[in-house]
Write a structure and sequence with these properties.
This protein is mainly beta. It has one helix spanning 2-23, and strands at 40-46, 52-56, 62-64, 66-69, 73-82, 87-88, 95-101, 107-111, 116-120, 124-134, 137-141, 145-150. 15% of the residues lie in helices and 46% in strands. The longest helix has 22 residues, at 2-23. Keywords: Signal.
Length: 151
C-alpha cells in the first residue's frame, strides 16, 4: 500500500512538472509578466507610402520582395502579425527587432527608430531574415526575404 501511494505521488509530481514546463515561455525572468506579449505568426513590410511590399503568412509563405537601386535607400516599416491578424512591433523593453542580411556587400538595413532604410550597396541579389529577440533568444524568425539591388 505504501508503494502504491508513493507511485501515485510521484506520478502526480511528474504531471505537475510537465504541465509547468509546457506552460512556460523560454524567458529570462527579468520582467514582472514576461508572458504578456503577442506571438508573431507572420509579418508585413510597408514602404514609405504604407503599401505592403512583402508579406509572410502563418505558413511562412513569402509574397513579394524588396528592391532598391544601388546607391539609394528605401524607407521601410516592419510589422509583425499575430495569429488573430493584429499588427504589432516589438516593444523595445523586452522584445527587440533584429535582422540579418545574408550579403551586406549587396544591401544593408539601417534602423532610424520609427522606420528603417534598405540601402543598395551594389547590384546583385541577397536576402534578409527579420527576428523578434526576447532576452538572449529569438521568439520569431522570418523566412528569407529576397532583396534585389539594381544598377
Amino acid at each position: 500500500m505504501f508503494t502504491e501511494t508513493r507511485k501515485l505521488i510521484n506520478r502526480a509530481a511528474l504531471v505537475l512538472a510537465a504541465t509547468a514546463m509546457l506552460a512556460a515561455c523560454d524567458d529570462d525572468g527579468t520582467g514582472p509578466d514576461d508572458h504578456d506579449h503577442d506571438e508573431a505568426a507572420g509579418l508585413v513590410i510597408l514602404d514609405q507610402n504604407n503599401a505592403t511590399v512583402v508579406s509572410v503568412n502563418a505558413s511562412r509563405q513569402v509574397t513579394g520582395s524588396l528592391s532598391v537601386k544601388a546607391g539609394q535607400a528605401k524607407h521601410l516599416e516592419v510589422w509583425f502579425v499575430a495569429e488573430d491578424g493584429d499588427r504589432f512591433q516589438p516593444d523595445g523593453a523586452e522584445h527587440t527587432l533584429d535582422w540579418t542580411v545574408a550579403n551586406e556587400s549587396i544591401a544593408v538595413i539601417d534602423s532610424h527608430g520609427d522606420h528603417m532604410d534598405l540601402d543598395g550597396v551594389a547590384a546583385g541579389s541577397t536576402a534578409v531574415v527579420f527576428s523578434i529577440l526576447h532576452g538572449n533568444h529569438s521568439d520569431y524568425d522570418s523566412p528569407s526575404i529576397p532583396i534585389t539591388v539594381t544598377p
